[in-house]
Amino acid sequence: MTSRKNKFLIIQVFISSLFLYKYIPLFQSHNIWYDDAHELLISKVTISDLKSFMLVADHHIGFSLLLKLIIQLFSFENIYTIIGCLNLGVFILVCYFLSKKDNFSLEVSTVQILILISPVVIDYIYKPKQYFLDFCIALFLVKYFSVDHNIKINKVFPLLFLSAFFSNILVVYFLIPLLKLVNRTKNRLMVYSSLLFTMPFFLRAYNKFFSESFREYWSSFYESSTQSFIKLFFNNLMFIRNFNDLGLLPLVIFIFSFGLFRLYKDNKNILWMVVTPVVFLNLLNLINLYPIGAGRTDLILFPIFVYSIYYLLKYLSSKISIIYLLIVLLPIFFFVENNKVREDNTQELINNTYLYDFDLLYVSYYSIPQTILFDSEYGQPKRVGSKCFYNSINKKVVFMQSDRSEKCSPQFNFSNIENEISNEKKILIIGHESKTQNIENTIKKMGVSKNNITIEKIGNNELLIAINFNN
Asked: Residue 401 gets which letter from DSSP?
């Protein structure tokens, strides 16, 4: 047993060191982009300002509080590296828990390498979002509640409360424990009444899934007719689709299928724990409530993949030495990389504004959160009445967003800019050029003299437009 434990620790040190060596440069190369900036604005909102806090927290209050604490301790300058290291640490702890319970350290380490090869995992392990932590917590819950003596009110409900506080979707891993609890407990009234304490969090999840903006954002991933079952089936495979980039998808599907069979043979408790959430989320997909195949939302499905491969390896370990499989996987782990960088140059754009003596600075919608995050003299996240909570606090700075909205939305009417141009005001426009705000073409259609306009493109989708500085 000691030998196995030592092997596990040695492998963990090696895996984590190699992973960080490969990916810390990737984490450091990312600039903070729109979605992440919105999350990081939690650092600029006080909990006492509950209205503003809840708008930034965006339905996952527990994670937002954790993120606020992390930023408080480390600041947000190196946030991707910090979160990447913390998430990797949590993953190692969960894997240690699995290894300790079953004493199959080599098998756990092998699955761990397979997960850390996955491009979609790499893409979200360093983001200031809860998806990867949801996956890690789900791994723990599956193992913990697969043991019958843990199905007790004093164990299920504290974890249910914490999970509901932390995440909208983790509650799907409590379906089996709750059903078992109801079936085994004589005092069912106690179980039902205990559920009332988590209702406020379920209500928030309910409101989110039924919100028009949420459903519109994920609309391409919903399936609502019987003719869509084939597409839905392939969407279910999309959570391991990233292995297709490595040329390994057919092999991974075969291994995954055989692993499910071994899971059925060896541990039906865990089988039900991982299959039930997948079935339940597919049902939600069929009624347009959960987007299967959307990438980041699919991380919650990964436990079925992890446990299937794990039980396959446990079966194979009686036939061959798993250390040989580890040796085969390590070169793949070393050479395969995800170098996907989401380019964002908002901070550079903001720095360039200081080179101009402008009358008005317009910030495009998808650069507003970064602008507030990087320069608090320009704006603040604060809910004022029914207005959007991205607020400019500088008279010379205008955020290109809807005037009154429960949630911020892009401004499409640029007549105010046209009027200011006609009045020969010196105007700067900075930010993302998007499908919803096609700023460059709109400005060109206003008939501004070519001598009076300068358009500087930074990166792929960001602009600095200077108007009336040459007259």
From this structure: B
